[in-house]
Amino acid sequence: MVSAIVVNWNGKDYLRPCLQALLAQEPPPTEVIVVDNHSDDGSRELVLAEFPTVRVIDTGRNGGPSFARNLGVAAAADELCLLLDNDVVLQAGALAALLATMASAPRAAMVQARSLCGDNPTIVHYDGADLHFLGTLALHNWYVPLQAARAPTGPIGAAIALCFLTKKSVYQQVGGFDERLFILFEDNEFSWKLRMRGHTVHLAPDARCVHLAGTAGLSVRQASDRYPGRRTFLHSRNRWFVLLTCMRWRTFLLTMPAQLLYGAVYAVFGHRHGHMRDWWRGKWDLLKLIPTAVRARKIAQQGRTVPDRELLVAAPLTFNRGLADRGAAAVVARLLSWFFAGYWAVVRRLCG
Prior knowledge:
The protein has two domains: 2-211, Spore Coat Polysaccharide Biosynthesis Protein SpsA, Chain A (Alpha-Beta Complex), CATH 3.90.550; 229-350, no CATH class. Helix content is 43%, strand content 19%. It contains twelve helices and twelve strands. The protein has helices at residues 12-23, 43-50, 64-75, 94-104, 168-173, 186-196, 229-246, 249-254, 256-272, 276-300, 308-311, 327-347, and strands at 2-8, 31-36, 55-58, 80-85, 88-90, 108-117, 120-124, 129-132, 137-139, 163-167, 200-211, 312-313. Strands 1, 2, 3, 4, 5, 6, 7, 10 and 11 form a nine-stranded mixed β-sheet that branches. It has a three-stranded mixed β-sheet with strand order 9-8-12. Helix 1 packs parallel to helix 2 (43-50), helix 6 (186-196) runs parallel beside helix 7 (229-246) and helix 7 packs parallel to helix 10. The longest helix has 25 residues, at 276-300. It is globular, with a radius of gyration of 19 Å.
């Protein structure tokens, strides 16, 4: 009925609780596949020794989560595929709730679980999002107490790919996740490709999972965590790649002043954190990827039925904790959100 695919790279410390919770679901998945990005920490050996019913695929290299997800879905035996990151621990009933939401919405192609913070499961971490016209995600209930979090009554704008249910046929129809993104913004691109074709994305509020510490050198969980230069590089490159791939040219041109302003603000952020070399490296990589992005665009836009003006929003910007919570940074963040909301209100009707 459901093929479960766990994406792993050097996540030996996460795999045991992840797989135990997954196999304890009622109903359990019909098969579990761990797609391992050629870990060197003993991950594959742990799975083979402790979980003999779990299939392990060694990718041979660390091609990133998008690469591993695509391999896992291709190998899956079932139409319905549950994809999880290795640091996700499902709560009881999560899979059943995901299946119920998928069954209740005929056009649904992606259903996300409600993600709770690993250090405090009473706080929401990821709860779905909207597609911002800047190419970013405007996150719902970001670090809001679970009791105060509002649940959606219908489709959402985008999902975060840490734990979601999807249909294999639709996943492959849109080309899966773009492996050139490696990580960061790959959720935006995949959700955008689904929705531009008329498919819907949903959150299953009763499908809950706990999201643990993430990937060293990339993930930012606490306000005290240092923002990694690797993340600055990926942000500098991947946002524009997604815009070039998914956005209609008319929308791209009409929003260019706002895109450039946002990019300039992020460059200042990179400079303040000592990441200007990473920021420029991202831009150089992007320049080399432009021909690839144009080719990927032709595939992404095939079968499109929904214009950008119906997909994109200008909700308040979401920032990592500690970056714009207080002081001058918080004021600048609010002013930027107001400006972008006003800009989108002016150009939205003209967009493709």
